[in-house]
Amino acid sequence: MSRLNLDDFTDLIERPDGGVRRDAEARRERQIVPPGALGRLDELGEWLAAAQSATPVRPVERPRVVLFAGDHGIAERGVSARPAGSAERLVRAVLEGASPVSVLARRSEVPLRVVDMALDCAADTFPEDVGRHRVRRGSGRIDIEDALTLDEAEAALRAGIAIADEEADSGTDLVVLGDISVGGTTAAAVLIAALCGTDASVVTGRGGVAIDDLAWMRKCAAVRDALRRARPVLGDQMQLLATVGGADLAAMTGFLLQCAVRKLPVILDGVVAAACALVGQRVAFRAPDWWLAGHDSGEPGQAKALDRMALEPLLEQGVKVGEGAGALLALPLVRAAAALAAELPEREPEELSGKEPGELSEKETGEEEQE
Q1: What pLDDT, on a 0 to 100 scale, did the predictor assign at position 4?
Q2: Exposed e or buried b for every residue in 328-347, given b needs 16+ CB within 10 A?
Q3: Pick the catalytic residue: 46, 152, 167, 323?
Q4: Which of 187, 151, 150, 158 is CA-nearest to residue 71?
Q5: 315 to each of 103, 188, 326, 334, how far by Cα in Å?
Q6: What is the largest distance, in Å, between two alpha-carbon atoms of the chain?
Q7: Which residues in the chain come in under a pLDDT of 70?
Q8: DSSP characters for 238-276?
Q9: Is 96 a catalytic residue?
């Protein structure tokens, strides 16, 4: 098998249809509710029309939550409120319907998919549809060793690409993307700090289950040490993911890039998804045009990454739980924007011209008087 060339994505990814977006803007100006009265819903409807290359915009009928799961060796350094290697329990709760994202997905009637990329458990712990893309068990401790080999990083990227193709081919019309990990926010902080050229303390947050001050200091130190290993490989995104990422983060990066190729819109969840998106932007600068930031998780690294990609969160509810829950909360907003853009009636021609129905223009009045 030939080596995956990430540079190919630059040519493969096109921007959403600008002509359709202009048509959607013109249609919005003709609708009975004045432009701007619906706030960001106007912008969302126009963005979705461009992504679908359709006006009026089609409703979002087949969304799906996709969660990539993995354990990170850096959790052994005490950077998380959860014990190292415990992401298996989180996955089990999601699959059993006992997690926030499971409840929200069930109530919203949105199917949910979990992909085991590097959980620290036996390969046959979960059903085949969860584990068939798995690359390895856990990952290396990124402050002292690589998370993955280069071959494993490529395998994870290819898995993400394949999963994006599966979703696009099955008719999924929008993806809510999240992660299930222990130690994942530390790896995400390293990627963001490296790509944004910032210090560890600027991007290091307290995670979904807030850690105390001592754990936060350990996390900052871990990010700082991993950054020293990341900076020499900044020019090679696959090597960067192998050095300080993980199989779940590499797969999410490949997934995001291929979704952009397949013109499949994605709502990003928290800091891990934002970090993968930032790597994706470094690979293909047009790719972020296909993504929405679902919410502000309060993680400083997420804010830094979104600012770099010029993405503004749709919601600010302080949801820190991860696992796609915050992004899934933004889905009704996107659906509402699509419905309003498609279903609000247009004004009558007389109203568009600024005349009352039956009123004659000055030109028409003059012609009538001459007669």
Answers
A1: 94
A2: bbbbebbbebbebbbebeee
A3: 323
A4: 187
A5: 19, 21, 8, 11
A6: 93
A7: 1-2, 350-371
A8: HHHHHHHS-HHHHHHHHHHHHHHHTT--EEE-SHHHHHH
A9: no
